[in-house]
């Protein structure tokens, strides 16, 4: 069993992503609003923090695959996973996506607008896909209460 201290410590998530060029990827994620977290940054990986609980570990492909028997997925042509970043407004969604596009990313699909929720997606330099979402909780709760 976990004790209270270990449960608290474990409420963080580290997403490990294999990338072709650490510096270019670090620059891209900085443009999205991530910040470099030096404690976990080294020669073969750059730790990028989204907040106090979410960290993206940009890792050289060699480092990522060390100790792994599986091949790295070709994320330029296949989807392996997608990730979602919630933000406080539709303006913030648009700012992040526009910054990502200027930094070399691409927008693989049109914005999804459900009225209570808007999602735009950005594909990074290595093909990893991030949804950036604004969810209006008041509208969402109103719709849910009518169901």
Task: Explain what the structure shows.
The protein is built from five helices and eight strands; from the N terminus they run H-E-H-E-E-E-H-E-H-E-E-E-H. It is elongated. The chain has a four-stranded mixed β-sheet with strand order 1-4-3-2. Strands 5-8-7-6 form a four-stranded mixed β-sheet. The chain has one domain (4-146): 2,3-Dihydroxybiphenyl 1,2-Dioxygenase, domain 1. The protein is α/β, with parallel strands linked by helices and 147 residues long. Helix 2 (22-32) runs antiparallel to helix 4 (90-102).
SSE blueprint and pairings:
Elements: H1 4-9, E1 13-19, H2 22-32, E2 35-36, E3 45-49, E4 54-60, H3 61-65, E5 82-87, H4 90-102, E6 112-113, E7 117-123, E8 129-135, H5 137-146
Parallel strand pairs: 1-4, 5-8
Antiparallel strand pairs: 2-3, 3-4, 6-7, 7-8
Helix pairs in contact: 2-4
**What number of domains?**
1
Q: CATH homologous superfamily - what is it?
A: 2,3-Dihydroxybiphenyl 1,2-Dioxygenase, domain 1
User: Helix- and strand-based class?
Assistant: alpha/beta
> What's the pLDDT, averaged over the residues?
92
Estimated share of beta-strand residues: 25-35%
Span between N and C termini? 39 Å
Please tell me what the overall shape is: elongated
Largest sheet: 4 strands, mixed
Helical residue percent? 25-40%
Helix-strand topology string: HEHEEEHEHEEEH
How many H/I helices? 5
CATH class: Alpha Beta
Order the strands across the largest sheet as they lie in space: 1-4-3-2
Rounded radius of gyration (Å): 17 Å
The CATH architecture classification is: Roll
CATH topology tier name: 2,3-Dihydroxybiphenyl 1,2-Dioxygenase, domain 1
DSSP strand count: 8
């Amino acid at each position: 069993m976990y004790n209270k201290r270990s449960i608290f410590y474990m409420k963080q998530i580290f997403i490990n992503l294999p990338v072709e060029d650490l510096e270019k990827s670090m620059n891209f994620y900085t443009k999205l609003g991530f910040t470099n977290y030096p404690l976990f940054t080294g020669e073969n990986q750059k730790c990028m923090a989204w907040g106090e609980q979410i960290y993206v570990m940009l890792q050289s492909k060699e480092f990522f695959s060390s100790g792994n028997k599986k091949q790295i997925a070709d994320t330029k042509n296949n989807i392996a996973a997608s990730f979602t970043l919630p933000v406080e407004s539709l303006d913030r969604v648009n700012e992040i996506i526009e910054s990502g596009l200027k930094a070399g990313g691409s927008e693989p699909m049109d914005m999804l607008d459900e009225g209570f929720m808007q999602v735009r997606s950005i594909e990074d330099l290595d093909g990893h896909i991030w949804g950036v979402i604004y969810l209006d909780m008041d509208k969402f709760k109103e719709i849910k209460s009518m169901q």
